[in-house]
């Protein structure tokens, strides 16, 4: 786009920046990733900022020579104002013929060739894990530690105010046999803007009230769950499931529904203690999720590191205003993994679980919440039952106190061929009066009463086949009211 056309299209942005003094423009330019902002005249610098901010051009690779890039002192309000004006100008454009709108300002990962965060042929992208010594590593989206992961120095972490779980793009140089990050190009999909960020642990939690509508026409059990035990953003859902009752199907279909209806929500699936042959299958079952899959051959320390990093990644999404959904299979395996990296307390449950390990797993699960003034972290976690193991009962009892949604599976229902074998008679969500109408709550009670019958699970499936949507089902009170009387 020529300069004259750029000035015409982005006149609002240009006028706003032109009213700032040169020092303010330079700080804003640094915030948007403009290289060497002090070398240009004011007008040229504004044009460069607009091109980069609108995604028309890349910032261009930085030289490894000379001083480190100076941090931006631009205020959060000014940066947000410029971004908002750019969005307004983009939305005002009309495109005809083969013209395409300006691409979203994203970066390209040179190694994979896929559009990711970062730019240039020498960029690497990963999720930051911070070690006890203060330096960090760029991990892949498996969250597992791998040989060759780039090192991020503690100086770089402090310079850019990076946090564990941040998605980082950085310029990499080979330092002997190790790859080392020397310059941060992007943080969480945008230029490394040096402004105060909200902190997950400092944000107050509120009751979940914004629902994830999981029900689809082709999935009767999720439609029933939407009414009986609805899932909201920030929910801590505990799934009590014996083996071979369909918990993986439940997780898979719930993830599919969320990815279809809520594409902006980030899905993470954490599966621990798997059989080696199941690892490849797991990634295929959750194509829209970042997958942590650890087999029983992996060291417990490595598995716990990956699970912890996945949680930190979800926290960074939530504190920045996004929505993350973490599916955990299972809490039972997590307790075993945590036990290897936790200093024993010397006290054990009746089932032989150290209380320190149980407390660490509970803290992991309790991280899910709806944040006031930010986003949400939702967690659905399985707890294994029906194995006759005393430790399973300890996990269910201790972690059940942290949950606010309960989904119970039944081996008896599974034996009748109903998969997933959800027992709706004893599945529920706490405080559903905050987001359910009175009619919907009566419908939920009717379905629970029906589920207590001998073939209740089968009848519920037949009942939902008579309507297209849950809204229609709830309105047709004669359907579920007669079922309740029957």
UniProtKB/TrEMBL annotation:
Residues 121-191 form the Rho RNA-BD domain. Keywords: ATP-binding, Helicase, Hydrolase, Nucleotide-binding, RNA-binding, Transcription, Transcription regulation. PROSITE patterns: RHO_RNA_BD (PS51856). GO terms for molecular function: ATP binding; ATP-dependent activity, acting on RNA; helicase activity; hydrolase activity; RNA binding. GO terms for biological process: DNA-templated transcription termination. The keyword Glycosyltransferase does not apply. Pfam families: ATP-synt_ab (PF00006), Rho_RNA_bind (PF07497). Gene3D superfamilies: Nucleic acid-binding proteins (2.40.50.140), P-loop containing nucleotide triphosphate hydrolases (3.40.50.300). The keyword RNA-binding applies. Belongs to the Rho family. PANTHER family: TRANSCRIPTION TERMINATION FACTOR RHO. This is Rho RNA-BD domain-containing protein.
């Amino acid at each position: 786009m020529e300069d004259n056309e750029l000035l015409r299209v982005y006149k609002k942005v240009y006028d706003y920046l032109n009213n700032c003094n040169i020092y303010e423009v330079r700080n804003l330019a640094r915030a948007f990733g403009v290289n060497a902002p002090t070398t240009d005249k004011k007008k040229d610098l504004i044009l460069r900022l607009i091109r980069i901010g609108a995604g028309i051009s890349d910032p261009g690779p930085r030289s490894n020579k000379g001083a480190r890039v100076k941090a931006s002192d631009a205020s959060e309000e000014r940066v947000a104002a410029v971004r908002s004006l750019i969005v307004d100008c983009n939305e005002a454009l009309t495109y005809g013929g083969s013209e395409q709108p300006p691409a979203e300002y994203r970066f390209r990962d040179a190694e994979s060739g896929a559009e990711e965060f970062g730019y240039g042929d020498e960029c690497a992208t990963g999720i930051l894990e911070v070690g006890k010594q203060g330096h960090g590593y760029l991990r892949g989206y498996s969250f597992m530690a791998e040989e060759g992961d780039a090192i991020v120095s503690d100086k770089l972490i402090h310079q850019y105010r990076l946090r564990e779980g941040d998605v980082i793009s950085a310029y990499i140089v080979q330092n002997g046999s190790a790859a080392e990050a020397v310059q941060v190009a992007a943080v969480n999909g945008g230029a490394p803007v040096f402004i105060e960020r909200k902190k997950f642990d400092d944000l107050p939690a509120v009751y979940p009230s914004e629902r994830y509508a999981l029900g689809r026409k082709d999935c009767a059990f999720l439609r029933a769950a939407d009414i009986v035990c609805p899932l909201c953003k920030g929910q801590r859902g505990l799934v009590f499931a014996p083996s071979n009752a369909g918990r993986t199907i439940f997780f898979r279909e719930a993830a599919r529904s969320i990815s279809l209806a809520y594409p902006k929500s980030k899905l993470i699936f954490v599966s621990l203690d798997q059989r080696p042959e199941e690892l490849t299958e797991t990634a295929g079952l959750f194509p829209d999720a970042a997958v942590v899959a650890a087999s029983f051959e992996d060291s417990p320390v490595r598995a716990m590191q990956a699970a912890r990093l996945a949680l930190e990644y979800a926290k960074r999404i939530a504190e920045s205003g996004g929505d993350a959904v973490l599916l955990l299979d299972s809490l039972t395996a997590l307790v075993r993994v945590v036990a290897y990296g936790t200093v024993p307390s010397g006290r054990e449950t009746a089932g032989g679980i150290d209380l320190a390990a149980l407390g660490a797993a509970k803290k992991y699960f309790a991280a899910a919440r709806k944040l006031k003034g930010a986003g949400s972290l939702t967690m659905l976690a399985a707890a294994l039952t029906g194995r006759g193991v005393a430790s399973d009962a300890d996990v269910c009892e201790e972690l059940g106190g942290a949950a606010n949604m309960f989904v119970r599976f039944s081996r008896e229902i599974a034996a009748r061929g109903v998969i997933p074998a959800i027992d709706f008679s004893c599945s529920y969500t706490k405080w559903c009066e905050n987001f359910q109408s009175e009619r919907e709550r009566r419908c939920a009670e009717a379905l629970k009463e029906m589920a207590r019958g001998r073939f209740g699970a089968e009848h519920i499936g037949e009942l939902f086949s008579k309507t297209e949507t849950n809204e229609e089902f709830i309105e047709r009170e004669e359907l579920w009211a007669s079922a309740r009387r029957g």
